[in-house]
Specification:
2 copies of one chain form a homodimer. In chain A, about 35% of the residues lie in helices and about 30% in strands. Chain A is α+β, with helices and mostly antiparallel strands and about 150 residues long. A 4-stranded antiparallel beta sheet of chain A has the order 3-4-2-5. Chain A is elongated. The first copy, chain A, starts with 6 loop residues before the first helix and ends in a 7-residue tail after the last strand. Chain B binds a DNA duplex (30 and 30 nucleotides) through helix 3.
DNA sequence: CGGTGTTGCCGCCGATCCTGCGGCAATCCG
DNA sequence: CGGATTGCCGCAGGATCGGCGGCAACACCG
């Protein structure tokens, strides 16, 4: 059952990554199958967890979230539960779009969106630096988003 | 017309960010409007560019893309067109999910997904380092994805 | 104050879409 | 070679979509 994805499955995923709200009948004729068979595949892909969900892509700027920042966070390793508490806090923070634990010069890489620089200062001071165990942060403000769709290669 | 989003609009966006394939009638009863009015709002949100599209969320691990990496790239500023050529190459590379030009210690932050370490070595050598003007790179491999949905706060 | 235009919503209805069912061909296996 | 399984198709009843006309609230203005 592992990775039992044929050519049609991958084609379905490829289409749905970019046009997630396409009706099943149109998806069917694009992959060259009947709507019934296509719907069955879609249902199976969701059940197997290959498709974890569907979502709308929004324009951050039109929503007043013009500033995208990446923050490298170093934790104080002597503080007990520092990692668990930091992770929990980050999951609760709405400004944080992503947070990854990395190996290398620091511990976490945080991607966050805020309205502007004052808002970022507030988020950094009240949201990140106030967490216990946070040792050091380094902020990189994004000047231009060269590529940002995040579509997986198939 | 700028930012003319009322409470219902934001509620629609909030729901569609997580459940992009919800039928219009269900969306309507959740926001407490008729299906007609709700569909009209949805159409308007797309026309105004607030909603830029819909997409399926896929599980990278089930697709054999288990390794997530971030790469900090520094360019040789003396090479003419270095920035434009780098940006163009990155847009063509399927492994690259995101690429942001940042201000700070380096020039571009690249987020990429590959199958495993050997695949990453190949991508780094043939995809990134072979580009003219690339001066230096620093790679951070993700050990744990603490938060990765990327849902905007509303 | 009343006329008028605008906006946002509703109900209705024909067209479209979804989904469960039965049938069929290909494949696999004992 | 017989039988089970798998994946697909066509069909049909029911759900959903989207365009249309109507209506109420509101703002503007003479």
């Amino acid at each position: 059952m592992t990775d039992g994805l044929d050519r049609v499955d991958r084609q379905i995923l490829k289409i749905l990554q970019r046009e997630g709200r396409i009706p099943n009948v149109e998806l069917a004729e694009r992959v060259g199958l009947s709507p019934t068979a296509t719907g069955e595949r879609l249902r199976r892909l969701q059940k197997d967890g290959v498709i974890t969900g569907f979502g709308a892509r929004l324009d951050p700027h039109l929503l007043g979230l013009s500033l995208l920042v990446f923050v490298e966070v170093s934790l104080d390793k002597t503080t007990p539960d520092a990692f668990a508490r930091f992770a929990a806090a980050v999951r609760r923070a709405p400004e944080v779009l992503e947070c990854h634990m990395v190996g290398g010069g620091f511990d976490y890489l945080v991607k966050a969106r805020v309205a502007d620089m004052p808002a970022y200062r507030r988020f950094l001071g009240e949201g990140l630096l106030s967490l216990p165990g946070v040792n050091n942060t380094r902020t990189y403000a994004v000047m231009e988003e060269v590529k940002s769709d995040g579509v997986l290669p198939l």
